[in-house]
Amino acid sequence: MTALATAPAAPSAVRGPVFGSTLAGTGSLLRFMLRRDRLRLLVWPLGVALLYAGALGEYVILGDDPEAMSVRATLMRTPAMISMAGPGYGVDDYTPGAAVANELILWLVLTLAVMSILQVVRHTRAEEESSRSELVRAGAVGRHASSVAALLQVVIANVLVAVVSGLVLVAFDFDAAESFTMTFSIALGALVFGAVALVAAQAMEHGRGATGISLAVLGGAYSLRAVGDIQEEHGSWLSWLSPIGWVQQTRVFVDLRWWPLGLCAAAIVLLIALAAVLGSRRDFGAGLVAVRAGRSDAAPALTGPFALAWVQQRTALLWTSLGLGLMWFASGGVVEAVPDLVESVADNPVYSAILGEGDDLIRAFLGVFGLYAGSGAAAFGVAMALRAKGEEESGRAGLVLTKPVSRARWLASGLVLALAGAAVVQVTGVLALWAGAASSGLDEPGFGAYLELALAYLPGLAVVVAFAAALYAWVPKATGLAWVLFGYVFVVGMFADLFGLPDWARGISPFWWVGNPMVDGVDAAHLWGLCGVAALLFLLAFAGFRRRDLQNG
User: What are phi and psi of 540, to 5 degrees?
Assistant: First the structure.
């Protein structure tokens, strides 16, 4: 018995885990993540496919209008459009395919990059921060299993989007090889930023920090590409420092070349290797970047839930307002060329459907930009309103409510700031549009018309935010419907006439009741009605939150 008790351990036990055990359980985790996010993984392909379908009809019809395509190509040569779209390949003979590539690739890379970043952080650092990963790691799960499973899930999501998007392009009679090259190159570019998020998840100790660093890298890539493309025709050396630039350098539908995608693949491999090294060198639950020591007591300003909510939302408000404001300022610079564009497309059925009928199509064009600004503000408002759900799931809301703070006061603090922040994003965006238009020499419409446009959307924004709050209060698991409403609002605003939607379908969108203040003015009855709906939804939110139990963190 003694000999057996003192016998040396087997060599594998002495040496530690055998090769490959750091990936043990990857398949099980991947299946769990796919099941957990199955609705998300369906929404993204469908949403992007609808985006393609909504835009492609316009490009196909414009292909039969050489004058309109020529004016569009002229716009693509302006610095504002270069910064907002890309280097502008094929503008000398602008075809629908070249227009699709030039005008959609940037925005689709940004969209899928954000998806990839959020998904990677959600399943790595956020899970670790909540301590759920610690429970998972108690089983037969390797150190790197969750990271690899998260990345594989993002790969599957991007491939699914690429396949569905490619099929939509082919359905509109675009070349199959070029179409799938475009959609898969967009997916590959987005995966670069998913790999960036994987590295950030090892470096930062908190999910918000990892997300913030990853989005900052994405913003830097956008800026490098924009500056590089403006400096030199078809991009300078700065453009080649951006993964977004690598995707655009494939020149699909103009002069297809594959080799820039090798840069994306190489970057992904290097970033995954770096994430693996960093993940092996840090303690579980900790990041490599030291967390700055906080105060021993709370700052005097943090005297209540409102101050806490402000601290949580102020950074997002700053960067969202700044980023969208710069984009709308650049958009205003394009307005200088609008008269020529409007004159050339006045009889085009697509633009007539989007801009409506009337003598002043320039105002109608600016009204569409107002809808874009309202959509950006609505997205911010929904995201901030739903932060309450994250606070509840993490257990932080329960800790706050153990203090002498009522449920209504805690919820109101976050919602008031979410609504105020959405209003700030909307107003600053539209005023930035005015500043850009004024700087390009367009004096009319004046400042007052832009201000009226900005303020007219505020009641509609309140309805969107209140709807998200009501969903959170009554059915937390159904908060994704708030994003469905957001997408529906945009589709109705842009394509209701083109699709021939009936009034009852249009009326579901709060923004439809706003109309186009630049052309039709403001209907006070509609705005007051939206205010009433928003007030009712907010009351429902407070009543629902008061009656239900909090989820445990």
Answer: -60, -40
Count CB-CB contacts under 10 A for residue 298.
11
Amino acid at 107: W
Neighbours of 400 (CB within 10 A): 17
Residue type, 369: F
Is residue 394 pLDDT above 50, yes or no?
Answer: yes
Q: Which amino acid is at 234?
A: H
> Distance (Å, rounded) from C-alpha 12 to C-alpha 144?
20
- Between CA 476 and CA 474 the distance in angstroms is 6
Report the chain's C-alpha Rg in angstroms: 25
Return all residues near 262 (Cβ < 8 A) that are at least 6 apart: none
Please calculate the CA angle 500-525-413 and round it to the nearest 5 degrees.
100
Residue pLDDT, tens place only, 335-359: 666 555 555 555 555 555 555 554 4
Q: What is the DSSP letter of 139?
A: S
Phi, psi of 360 (to 5 degrees): -105, 80
Tokens describing residue 8:
């040396």
Alpha-carbon distance of 50 to 498, in angstroms, equals: 14
Distance of alpha carbon 320 from alpha carbon 337, whole angstroms? 27
User: Other C-beta atoms within 10 Å of 114: how many?
Assistant: 16
What is the rounded CA–CA span in Å between residue 492 and residue 502?
11
CA 524, 528, 533 angle in degrees (round to 5)?
Answer: 150
As a whole-number percent, the residues of the chain with pLDDT over 90 amount to 18
Of 183, 187, 186, the C-alpha closest to 154 is 187
d(CA 119, CA 30): 12
Give 476's pLDDT tier (boundaries 50, 70, 90): confident
CA geometry: angle 96, 97, 99, nearest 5 deg: 65
Distance of CA 328 to the CA centre of its chain: 16
Q: What span, in angstroms and rounded, lies between the C-alpha atoms of 146 and 125?
A: 10
Q: Rounded to whole angstroms, how far apart are CA atoms 381 and 317?
A: 10
Alpha helices (runs of H) in 281-406, residue ranges in sequence order: 305-334, 338-345, 349-355, 361-385, 387-394, 396-401
pLDDT of residue 7: 45
The answer to whether 537 and 466 are in contact (CB under 8 A) is yes
For residue range 515-553, what is the model confidence (pLDDT) as tens digits?
A: 878 777 788 898 999 999 999 999 999 998 888 888 754
Q: Which residue has the higher pLDDT, 493 or 420?
A: 420
Q: What is the pLDDT of residues 175-222, one digit of tens each?
A: 889 999 999 999 999 999 999 999 988 888 777 788 888 888 888 888
Task: List the domain boundaries for the chain.
Answer: 24-287, 302-548
Alpha carbon distances (Å) from 434 to 75, 79, 341, 430: 19, 17, 19, 6
> Cα(376)–Cα(454) distance, rounded to whole angstroms?
12
